[in-house]
Write a structure and sequence with these properties.
By secondary structure, the protein is an alpha/beta fold. The protein has 10 helices and 7 strands. It has a 7-stranded parallel sheet with strand order 3-2-1-4-5-6-7, with helices on both faces. The longest helix has 29 residues, at about 105-135.
């Protein structure tokens, strides 16, 4: 990737009203930084913006729906006018929550893809020509370790994050030598409204401030992929590499339906290897 053009000072961040987005907003909030924050919940977003201002940042907060392309285009164009854009973090995402196999309904599936995939495109694509005119910039896409392999309790969520991962990897190659860096962020279980909906064990569960520190360090170094924690990353790599006939049977076994997640399987894997 290209060497850093400059520090990330003008930053667009979606999904900033809670979870990783909130933690990232607070992490980047400092004197000299301009934050353009987006979120659906007006009250939570207002609170995040106020705390960022207390830390010295200039903050613009708007409840723009990432699924509405025209509104996102206008918002991002307005954000770029004063100082350009150094960093865009397409973070907004939803999940139906892990449940029993076959529980995802059509509405839930379409909503997940609309936010997690179309929402990412609606954030990146308006920003891309602006960065191309600038000759520099950094695009960060929020995927997930769940995107490494489809999970039967959350196929839509896994698939949406897999699409983001593949798109980010491909876009990075397309934009090489343009001065625009592309990073794909793949966290494990991090405290958020998404994980609050999970009713199964979540090993290696991480607080949002720690996750934000890891992401910030990775973005500062222009890393291509920021996947953490390493235990989950390794376990997901193992499952993705294993024969599908084996992983399908394991993940679809009804007796595992309460703990079907890559994290839970990783615990069993590490325990087995330690025997």
């Amino acid at each position: 990737m290209t060497a850093p053009f400059n520090e990330h000072r003008s930053i667009i961040l979606t999904g900033a009203s809670s979870g990783i987005g909130e933690a990232l907003a607070l992490n980047y909030a400092q004197q000299g930084h301009v934050l353009w924050l987006n979120g659906r919940n007006a009250e939570r977003l207002k609170d995040v913006a106020a705390r960022c201002r207390e830390l010295g940042a200039e903050v613009h907060a708007d409840t723009v729906d990432v699924t509405e392309l025209d509104n996102m285009q206008q918002w991002i164009t307005a954000a770029a006018e004063p100082r350009g854009i150094d960093l865009v973090v397409a973070n907004a995402g939803i999940s139906g929550g892990a449940s029993s196999i076959g529980d995802e309904d059509e509405t839930q599936v379409r909503d997940i893809f609309a936010v997690n995939l179309a929402g990412v495109l609606n954030t990146l694509l308006p920003a891309l020509p602006i960065m191309q005119r600038q000759g520099h910039g950094h695009l960060a896409l929020m995927s997930s370790i769940a995107g490494f392999r489809g999970l039967p309790t959350s196929p839509a969520y896994s698939a949406s994050k897999a699409a983001v991962l593949a798109y980010g990897d491909g876009l990075r190659g397309e934009l090489q030598h343009t001065g625009i860096d592309v990073s794909v962020i793949c966290p494990g279980f991090v405290k958020s409204r998404i994980t609050d909906a999970n009713d199964f064990p979540m090993p290696f569960f991480m607080p949002t401030d720690k996750a934000a520190n890891i992401i910030r360090r990775g973005l500062d170094k222009r890393r291509r992929r920021i996947a953490f924690p390493w235990q989950m990353r390794f376990a997901m790599w193992f499952i993705a590499a294993a024969p599908v006939i084996i992983t399908d049977r394991f993940l679809a076994n009804p007796k595992w339906k309460k703990i079907i997640s890559i994290a839970t399987f990783s615990v069993g894997l590490f325990q087995f290897c330690a025997i």
